[in-house]
Amino acid sequence: MKQVLALAYKDWRLSVDTPVVYVAAAAFMLVSGFVFGSGLFLGGQAELRTFLGWLPLLWMFFLPALAMRALAEERRQGTFEVLATLPVGSGQIVAGKFIAIMWQVLLLLLLTLAYPLSLAVLASIDAGQVLAAFTGALLLGASYAALCLFASSLTANAVVAYIIGFSLILSFVLLDKGARLMPPDIQTWLQALSPSQHYESMLRGVLTPEDVVFFLCFSMLFLMASNYQLERRRWI
After folding, report:
1. Helix or strand or coil: residue 169?
2. Domain count, the chain
3. Domain limits at 110?
């Protein structure tokens, strides 16, 4: 575990030394603030649902930017070969990269806590529903982060990694939308595979074990896929 945290800290330090994180955080807060403000001032409704409903779309644009350099940059700079010679396994490398990305995701969500705090001043809010919604937002972010980390493991080009990550997330979003056009039996199965569908149930304040397990399994699946890619690289 010490090696994993050391790798995560190294990646975190590298990320804060580059403008990408600051630009992404500023853009995220600008867009999310506009979405929140439009619901509050233009819609006249003191609620978080507008912002939280748009959050999957925001993740689709911003998470690939946070994860695109994680493994692709190691290959481009030739430092992956150095990592491969260290006494750490591929699983530890993937875990360290994932934790570093999740620190950034958590930071973005902590910044958005200003929205429910401002609403609490204007009106009474359901703390339980807010907690469930932000838990869903964090789990959805973790799932998409694992997906984008896998995209970064497929190429040595960070821009290509962004495009792959964005496309993968978009495919799952379209899966949820397309499922509504299918027969009921097929629709049920397709929506069960959609992260957006599980997230929407949490937006209603319902935090079920099935939704939590889905997000954990989804994240683990793509972390294992990233681990497989690294193991394959070691032997090429």
Report:
1. helix
2. 1
3. 2-234
